[in-house]
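> example.struct
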């Protein structure tokens, strides 16, 4: 009598076969997970190194000016000119905040364009040049550059892991930007909201897992190294109903108007005095940067060195109601310092300096509301001005709450941010990052139409090409019919 053959393990274990065949164990998905986890760890480590190097650089600058308040009058203009010259060619994408470059890279799926904006040399130079700028007192922040670095690291890592699909890489870029802002401020929720509201401009269900994974892994690394802390320290402030809510109205209106004005100033316009400034910068970029550095140094002398750097110390003093603060004139001086630093075309962001100006606005408004808690008004001014500058009210509200570990001010802060966004639209209808990104996209489309064959060449590495003239850094380009129709909508 013949014996029946022994069943194979696969046939005898249908449940095991079903489990192993589940989507969770798919090699493609595990490759993506490993890429995301690795990228999140790298971004967190890069953000920590960047933050500490930036603090060291500005501390060095403070030691230098202790030997003479006149030293920046010579040192700052020279280095501003040098930084502008270094970023005139292949490193042009390293200029400015970096957030517009990320937004444009998400929406333009051309591999050549993305490599020019997010290549590793751009990310490294962004960090190094921003640190050098802080070493000479530039009124800039590191948060925007950290977003740029995070997106660049995720993009490069995604390609190294073999992800070539343009849509998949878009998600990597978005996740990297979210991890960057979360690691820079230690604000995980703000990282997710910022990615949805500012970077992507929309919400897609497939993005949620990538964003949360990147932010959580990066947050764990940051928490393990830096500990659990609030950027400006815990602020125990609340705003009772009634007369105190005048602060919401005043901070929302004044913060929004000044934020929109700042955005309009750094964007420059196509007509009038601002257009003339843009043409001057385009014609003599290095000399113009030298002039901006000299203007910043003069503002530093007038403000007794209060306008240099990110403004973190001044903002913290305002929000913590310290006995000694930068004073009521700080708001105007710091706003002007932010403008000339951005006009110079050097690498550096606007987040931290904007928070400092906003804190100054709140401090000034609190002077006219003696019966309202000053810390609460400062917090409202900070979030409202940031909302006016960025045009992102939800992100601004979440950042302000996470930076101060304050949940009691949720409703007042959100109300002030919404008012500020509406007031800012008087001067700047299009959010500043989106406007810069649209200029980059228009330049790309124009250049692509002129040289389609060159743009479609395969790109096998992180080579950085010369961007040439770009309206995102120089004089604004003339509006296209498509952009005019979009603005009307």
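> example.seq
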């Amino acid at each position: 009598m013949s014996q029946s053959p022994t069943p194979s393990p696969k046939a005898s274990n249908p449940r095991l076969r079903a489990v192993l065949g589940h989507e969770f164990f798919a090699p493609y998905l595990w490759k993506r997970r490993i890429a995301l986890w690795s990228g999140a760890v790298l971004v967190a480590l890069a953000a920590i190194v960047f933050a500490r190097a930036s603090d060291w650089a500005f501390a060095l600058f403070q030691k230098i000016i202790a030997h003479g308040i006149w030293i920046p009058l010579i040192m700052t203009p020279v280095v501003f000119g040098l930084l502008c010259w270094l970023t005139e060619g292949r490193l042009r994408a390293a200029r400015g905040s970096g957030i517009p470059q990320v937004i444009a890279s998400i929406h333009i799926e051309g591999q050549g364009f993305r490599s020019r904006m997010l290549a590793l040399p751009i990310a490294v130079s962004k960090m190094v040049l921003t640190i050098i700028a802080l070493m000479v007192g530039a009124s800039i922040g590191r948060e925007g550059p950290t977003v740029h670095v995070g997106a660049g690291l995720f993009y490069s890592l995604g390609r190294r892991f073999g992800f070539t699909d343009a849509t998949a890489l878009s998600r990597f870029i978005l996740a990297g930007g979210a991890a960057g802002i979360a690691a820079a401020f230690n604000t995980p929720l703000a990282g997710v909201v910022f990615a949805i509201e500012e970077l992507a401009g929309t919400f897609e269900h497939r993005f949620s897992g990538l964003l949360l994974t990147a932010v959580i892994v990066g947050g764990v690394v940051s928490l393990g190294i830096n500990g659990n802390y609030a950027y400006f320290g815990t602020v125990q402030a609340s705003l009772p109903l009634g007369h105190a809510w005048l602060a919401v109205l005043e901070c929302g209106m004044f913060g929004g108007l000044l934020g929109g004005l700042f955005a309009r100033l750094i964007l420059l316009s196509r007509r009038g005095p601002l257009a003339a400034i843009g043409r001057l910068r385009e014609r003599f970029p290095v000399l113009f940067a030298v002039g901006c550095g000299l203007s910043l140094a003069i503002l530093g002398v007038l403000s007794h060195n209060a306008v240099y750097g990110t403004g973190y110390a001044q903002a913290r003093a305002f929000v913590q109601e310290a006995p000694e603060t930068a004073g009521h004139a700080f708001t105007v001086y710091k706003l002007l310092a932010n403008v000339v630093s951005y006009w110079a075309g050097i690498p550096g962001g606007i987040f931290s300096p904007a928070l400092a100006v906003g804190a100054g606005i709140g401090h000034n408004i609190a002077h006219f509301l003696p019966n309202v808690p000053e810390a609460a008004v400062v917090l409202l001014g900070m979030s409202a001005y940031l909302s006016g500058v960025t045009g992102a009210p939800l992100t601004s509200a979440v950042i302000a709450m996470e930076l101060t570990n304050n949940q009691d001010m949720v409703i007042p802060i959100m109300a002030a941010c919404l008012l500020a966004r509406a007031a800012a639209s008087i001067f700047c209808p299009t959010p500043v990052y989106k406007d810069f990104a649209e200029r980059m996209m228009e330049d790309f489309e124009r250049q692509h139409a002129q040289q389609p064959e060159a743009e479609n060449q395969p790109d096998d590495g992180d080579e950085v090409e010369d961007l040439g003239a770009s309206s995102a850094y120089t004089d604004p380009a003339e509006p296209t019919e498509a952009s005019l129709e979009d603005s009307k909508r």
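> remarks
The longest helix spans residues 27-65.
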